[in-house]
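Please supply some protein, with fold tokens.
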Amino acid sequence: TLFAAWILVPAVIVLAAASVGRTGHEPRDQLDKDVELKKKLEEIRLLAGPLMNLGDVTKKVVPKMCLVAAPATPGGHIATRSFIPHECHSAIGVFAAVTVATAAVLPGSPAHRVARLPEGRIKTLSVEHPTGEFSVRIEVGGSGRTVAGGNADGGATADRAGTQCVENADAGLEVDDRAGTPDQDDRRVRR
């Protein structure tokens, strides 16, 4: 039940919390102290690294791990617990949120199996994390428009603190950091 979804680098592995014997709703502190879980996640990370063309990831922070479960709140769409790489984080980053939302709309993925998806081609998914939620707007299916130099067969956007991210299956990932710093000015990367 391992489904790897990667966007840009850092890479993210999305897996069902139940596949490692957890609910996906545990408090962050409990998961952060869970030595058995961290050992399982590290085994998966080390096996997946070469398969994701990341090489030996023993001393790398990628791939990041994200456990997914059915949402905990009535308005939620999917619950997450993120590990980067060994610490359970109190929230979820932009790339991980977009990755989880993208995986949630991919039939057969662990995220799709636990998500409660709204109807329609354009969806705003509430990606729950230990301290709240992160909303990701995702478009499923072809639109005929061009994004980042490719045909847009769907995509996802997430806004946080002036940064907009657009993921597209054909075009790769585009990051437009409106408050960019010199090292952020050329962050457009193709898959």
